[in-house]
Amino acid sequence: MEFENAVIIALVVFCLSVLFKGFLSAAGKDLWVFLKESLLQRMEKEMEVGPDFKAKVYPEQNCTWIPEENIQNKERHKWAYYPHPKNGKKCFRLVGEGKFTRKEYFMVTPNAKRT
Fold this sequence. Notes:
Layout: H1 2-43, E1 46-48, E2 63-67, H2 71-76, E3 80-81, E4 90-95, E5 102-108
Parallel strand pairs: 1-4
Antiparallel strand pairs: 2-5, 3-5, 4-5
Transmembrane segments: 6-24
Keywords: Membrane, Transmembrane, Transmembrane helix
């Protein structure tokens, strides 16, 4: 009788371990993906905005979209990146289509005053 109980307990433990191994493995992968994406978002210093994004922190006449290839020139002339209203990250947008897509940054002139 004891042997039969031990076999039944061993089978139950085996079935539960197989069930939970698959479940915990999938849950662990999902948790890792979630944590990785959350951490990467916090570490990124840029945030994509829509094509109709408007300036609210600085007057619109002091803000413009600058193509990525012209950024170094604007930085040398003391232009600043427009801070995203929610988190202060650099605002950018993607323009164009397909392989002609390029990145533009929303920048502020050196003499701009906050509104």
